Each structure stands twice: as C-alpha cells, then as structure tokens.
C-alpha cells in the first residue's frame, strides 16, 4: 500500500513527461503538463495521510480526534489554483500559435524565429 | 533535433530523474504514518486559537496567509496575461456572435440542454455563495466557491445565450470585481497589521465556534478571494469564448487593403 501511493505519483510524473516529449499536438502537450502537475497533488496528499485519521475538519467532530495533515492539503489547494492558471495561460499561447502558424504541431515551432 | 534523438535524450534524462525521485521517495515517512508534524500542532490549535473548524482554511488564511496573498496575485497576473494574449489583433474584427468552428459541423444546442443549463444557473450561483461563506466551517472557501460561481456563468453560455451573457457581464464590471477582491485581501491584511501588529493578523470578533459569523476576518478574506477567483475565471472564460464565437480574421485581400 505504501508503495502504491508514491508509485502513482511517480507514474503520473513520468507518463506526463513521456507525453510531453512524444506530443504531436500543442493542446495534448498542455494537458500532459497538467498530468505532471497531478503527480504533485497525489504526492502531497499521500505525505499527509495518516492511517485511521479523519479529514482536518472539526465541524461535528470532537476536538482532539486524530486528523490528517492540513498543511499539505492547503499546499495542494495552492497547487490546483496555480496549475489551472498555468494551463489557461498556455492554452492562450496555443491559440495564438495556431493563429500565427496555422499549425498545432510542436515541431513546427522552429520556424517562429524567421 | 529529430524525434528519434529527442526520444533517446529523454530516456537518458528520465533514467537519471528516476534515480533521484526513487532516492527522494526512500526518505519519505512510511505511507500513513507521518509522525508528529506541524499539521498535528495546527489541528490542535486552529479551533481554540482561531475558532476555525476547517483547518485547511485556517492554514491558508491565517497561519500561512501571506502565501495565499502571493497565490492570489499569481492568479491575478495569469488572468491579465490570458486577457492580453487573447486580445483582438490588428487583423481581426468582431463578427456578430455565432458558434462557428471551422471545418466541422456544429450541432444546434438542443432544447433539453438549454432548459437544464438555464435551470441550473440559479442553484449553482447559490451553491457557490454557500461554499464561499462557509469556508471557515466546512471544506470550501473563496477559491473553491469562486470557481463554482464562474461555472454559473459558463452555464449561461451552455444554454446558447452568448449574446445575452455579454450584455449581463460587461468586462469592465467583471475586471472591477476582480481588482476589488484582490485589493480587499491586502486591505484586510493591513487592518490586521494596524490592529494586531502583524500583516494578516486575525482581527474582529472571533464569535462562537461553528457559527457563520465567527473566526474574525477570515470570512471577509474568503469573500474577497471568492470575488477575485470568480471574476478572474469569468474573464478567462469570456476571453476564450470570444476567440471561437466573435472574433474573425480578415480575409487576406481585405487585410492588405485596410493596412
């Protein structure tokens, strides 16, 4: 079980990187970057997990009940917000690239300097 | 660089990265047994000290509030960049709104989708406001609620009412709300500095634990973040929607003629 949680994080990291390297479409490439980012969510939440603990919300839960780590969950929230905006920003760049070059193939980007 | 060389280069670097990642994972606490952490302390302190039952919100808006301020401005900068990048170019003009995708057939929005989307607008916005307002009690808060609020606006687009949508939410008003939300966070932080001696120090009546009007300034912070995130997402959405729906490139002959 221990191996599985961290293994999923590592798998997402490498499968996302593989997708970025092999990508033939810029939209696909941006989504692959989002997959890489998803690895950080899994890793953060896995680090904070505690066996048999409740969520760090004490509404209707007795104070002192063992809860999972709230700090990594807060970091995860930051991560999600930043990840979303990065995706939006990159997709806006993709829209402009498509307008200028008429292509979504990352390999065609080498012509931009000309 | 050919695809083959690139792939080889990637496989070599990925192997190196894999070694580093595995070595790093080896040092992590065993899954499910993190030991005593900073989080353990905060779980015990949040309710008695801040009257906040959702400890994640307590971390984001009080103990680690300055980070959230930075995060808010990352979001602010990204929204500005998206709007700038997608601004109409010199060779583009606004056409009357029609959902035209080049080279593929666009089906008419069915009546079922229209009715369902319009019926969900009200409940979605109410739900968003609920999530924003209860951030200090249950999971939720400005970030999550703000996104739900923006979804309400997206539903209007799904209902096929783009032209009405743009009439309802002029960009200047939405930009004003976004700016207001971002500034309010700083102002609330500065009041904390004046009253409590540190930036973003909790101020205002702490109230009774579990009540909506408790936790001092934290609900205000959530409302300011909710306004910024909601308005920011509406700006991003309308910038992208404008690309597909309103903006058309001039035909080449026309462009050279007007240039």
Describe the structure.
The complex is a heterodimer of chains A (114) and B (259). Chain A has 114 residues and is mainly alpha-helical. Chain A has a single domain, classed as Helix Hairpins, CATH 1.10.287. Helices cover 67% and strands 0% of the residues of chain A. Chain A is built from three helices and no strands. Chain A has helices at residues 2-22, 26-48, 70-101. In chain A, helix 2 (26-48) runs antiparallel to helix 3 (70-101). The longest helix of chain A has 32 residues, at 70-101. In chain A, 25% of the residues are buried. The mean pLDDT of chain A is 86. Chain B is mainly alpha-helical. Chain B has one domain (53-258). Chain B is built from ten helices and two strands, in the order H-H-H-H-E-H-H-H-H-H-E-H. Chain B has helices at 3-26, 38-50, 55-63, 65-85, 111-133, 142-158, 162-168, 171-196, 218-245, 252-258; strands at residues 92-94, 247-249. Chain B has a two-stranded antiparallel sheet with strand order 1-2. In chain B, helix 2 packs across helix 3 (55-63), helix 4 (65-85) packs antiparallel against helix 8 and helix 8 runs antiparallel to helix 9. The longest helix of chain B has 28 residues, at 218-245. Chain B is globular, with a radius of gyration of 24 Å.
């Amino acid at each position: 079980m221990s191996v599985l949680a961290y293994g999923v994080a590592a798998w997402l990291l490498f499968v996302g990187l593989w997708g970025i390297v092999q990508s033939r479409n810029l939209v696909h490439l941006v989504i692959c970057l989002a997959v890489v980012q998803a690895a950080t969510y899994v890793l953060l939440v896995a680090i904070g997990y505690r066996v048999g603990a409740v969520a760090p919300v004490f509404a209707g839960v007795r104070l002192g009940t063992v809860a999972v780590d709230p700090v990594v969950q807060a970091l995860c929230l930051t991560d999600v917000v930043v990840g979303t905006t990065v995706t939006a920003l990159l997709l806006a760049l993709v829209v402009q690239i498509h307008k200028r070059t008429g292509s979504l193939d990352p390999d065609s980007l080498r012509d931009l300097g000309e | 660089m050919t695809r083959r060389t690139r792939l080889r280069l990637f496989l070599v670097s990925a192997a190196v990265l894999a070694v580093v990642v595995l070595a790093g994972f080896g040092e992590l606490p065993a899954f499910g047994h993190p030991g005593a952490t900073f989080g353990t302390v905060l779980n015990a302190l949040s309710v008695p000290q801040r009257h906040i039952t959702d400890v994640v919100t307590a971390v984001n808006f009080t103990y680690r509030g300055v980070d959230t301020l930075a995060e808010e401005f990352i979001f602010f900068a990204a929204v500005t960049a998206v709007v700038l990048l997608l601004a109409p170019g010199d060779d583009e003009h606004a056409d009357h709104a029609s959902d035209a995708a080049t080279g593929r057939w666009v089906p008419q929005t069915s009546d079922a989708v229209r009715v369902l989307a319009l019926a969900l607008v009200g409940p979605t916005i109410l739900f968003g406001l609920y999530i924003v307002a209860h951030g200090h009690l249950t999971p939720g808060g400005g970030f999550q609620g703000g996104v739900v609020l923006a979804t309400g606006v997206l539903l209007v687009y799904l209902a096929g009412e783009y032209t009405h949508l743009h009439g309802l939410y002029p960009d200047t008003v939405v930009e004003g709300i976004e700016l207001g939300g971002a500034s309010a966070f700083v102002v609330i932080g500065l009041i904390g500095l004046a009253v409590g001696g540190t930036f973003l120090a909790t101020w205002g009546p702490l109230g009774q634990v579990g009540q909506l009007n408790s936790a001092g300034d934290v609900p205000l912070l959530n409302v300011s973040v909710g306004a910024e995130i909601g308005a920011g997402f509406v700006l991003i959405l309308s910038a992208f929607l404008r690309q597909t729906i309103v903006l058309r490139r001039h035909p080449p002959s026309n462009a050279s003629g007007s240039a």
